[in-house]
Design a protein that fits this description.
Length: 475
């Protein structure tokens, strides 16, 4: 199987596993929203958003740098992975300990402060997990990672069920999350041993080399964090937990969706890196163009479909109490579509080792978005937060495309965009006429989405959105 075939195989495996894990995740979310209500789910959203600040800072850029460093020909994978795991563990313990300490000084209820302490344990396992995923990405064996993820989600659903059945409240749900994260990491670790007997190594010289390489990404991640997460935190301070819960319900669906471009870009990154290091610009541009096409084929119908089926999604996933989140979801899906495009180009910048060039870009976006949140959230609540999110993602996507062009002279061809638009409109026609009395049921929604997907890809094929070479790769 050639490189593109391997990428496609792993992407299909991940999409299939993501469908399964997403279904389980949505089941977990449906159970939580109905059990906690808007206010309780608002507290849950505030807790997970707050501690994720420290978890993301603790990343130090190591997640992305893992794939890049072990993709360099001739390096010792074991030595690099062992040191990355050790460095990740130290950084996670240090930064995640700051979360429960700092939240004590904020005007939150005690339930939120205790929740931050509990959930910080979950993010330690998630932090270590991300390094192992880098190994699976490089080896193009994401099927093993998918098994562990699905196992973790099954554990989460079971844990939430038991917590609800026994009336353990919000803390019970949080402990279920911690246990599920541990089980996911444990299985990832066991499966990784079949490739490399990983452990912990404390080579401070290598740590300095890793940090020297990753610090631009760490800085970018901090700036990225500001414009991605401060909206929920500001909302939690200046508005009610009910409003946080409504915004969080829509945002949770978006978070599930945008895992797709990140996992695909993670698979493509080693091949972009290797082709650039080997000075094969044609191959580099070919992979980037096919990746761009793939993102368009996924993002555009998703954005169109959500504008029509958002009421069914919110009603079935979150419940009737969360129906105000429908309009928020319609707005945020636009930001998700931009993330699909921007992610592949930001990964291309990492592949050519020019991530330092992104620092001014992310600094400007984070500061301008923060200003926007402070101005518009007090006035327009979650609507202000959603539109500033779109501004941020649009700016990042456009700027990343421009920089990739300056560095590589790559200009994405948009013949796939026009075909995707037409296929999406034909798909939208079906969604509009689909009986709504049937759509507001799980079976009806499944039929609606399945047939719409089939219609989209059928028309895309008839419009020759796929070439014969693409079909050969698929075969």
């Amino acid at each position: 199987m050639n490189d593109q075939g391997k990428i496609l195989y792993n992407t299909i495996v991940q999409i299939m596993s993501k469908v399964a894990s997403t279904a389980l995740g949505l089941i977990a979310m449906a159970m939580m929203t109905r059990y906690l209500g808007t206010s309780g789910f608002g507290e849950y959203t505030t807790i997970i958003t707050y501690i994720s600040f420290f978890a993301i800072v603790a990343d130090l850029g190591l997640t992305l740098i893992t794939v890049q460093m072990i993709s360099v020909p001739g390096v010792s994978e074991k030595k690099i992975l062992d040191n990355l795991l050790a460095l990740r563990l130290v950084s996670a313990i240090f930064f995640l300990s700051l979360g429960p300490l700092s939240v004590l000084f904020l005007p939150y209820e005690n339930s939120i402060k205790v929740g931050v302490l509990i959930l910080s344990l979950s993010f330690v396992f998630i932090a270590l997990n991300q390094i192992l995923i880098g190994l699976f990405q490089k080896r193009l064996r994401m099927d093993r990672s998918a098994i562990a993820e699905i196992f973790g989600r099954l554990s989460l659903v079971l844990g939430i069920y038991l917590a609800i059945k026994n009336g353990l409240g919000l803390n019970g749900l949080l402990w279920a999350t911690v246990i599920a994260s541990f089980l996911n990491f444990a299985l990832q670790y066991i499966l990784a041993q079949k490739f490399i007997k990983t452990g912990l190594e404390f080579d401070l010289k290598l740590w300095k080399k890793i940090i020297k390489k990753s610090w631009p990404l760490a800085l970018i991640i901090v700036f990225n964090l500001i414009y991605l997460k401060t909206d929920t935190l500001i909302l939690s301070i200046v508005k009610t937990q009910e409003e946080v819960g409504i915004y969080g319900a829509a945002y949770k669906i978006i978070e599930v969706i945008v895992t797709i471009p990140f996992m695909f870009s993670g698979l493509v990154l080693p091949f972009l890196t290797i082709s650039w290091l080997k000075k094969e610009p044609k191959k580099f541009k070919s992979i980037l163009q096919k990746s761009y096409d793939f993102m368009i084929f996924l993002a555009l119908p998703m954005v169109v479909a959500i504008q029509i089926i958002a009421p069914e999604l919110i009603f079935l996933i979150a419940g009737k109490e969360f129906m105000p989140a429908v309009e928020i979801l319609k707005i945020l899906i636009l930001a998700a579509g931009l993330i699909f495009i921007g992610t592949i180009f930001s990964h291309a910048i990492i592949a050519i080792d020019k991530q330092k060039k992104l620092i001014p870009l992310y600094l400007f976006v984070s500061l301008s978005a923060l200003a926007g949140y402070l101005i518009f959230i007090p006035k327009y609540s979650y609507f202000g937060a959603a539109w500033i999110t779109i501004y941020s993602e649009a700016f990042i996507a456009l700027a990343s495309i421009i920089y990739v062009y300056k560095a590589t002279k790559f200009i994405p061809k948009n013949y796939s965009l026009l075909k995707s638009i037409l296929a999406s409109l034909l798909m939208a026609g079906f969604l509009i006429i689909f009986p709504k009395e049937l759509a507001f049921s799980w079976l009806g929604l499944f039929i609606e989405i399945s047939v719409a997907t089939l219609i989209y890809f059928l028309f895309l094929y008839l419009l020759k959105g796929f070439s014969k070479n693409d079909l050969k790769i698929l075969k």
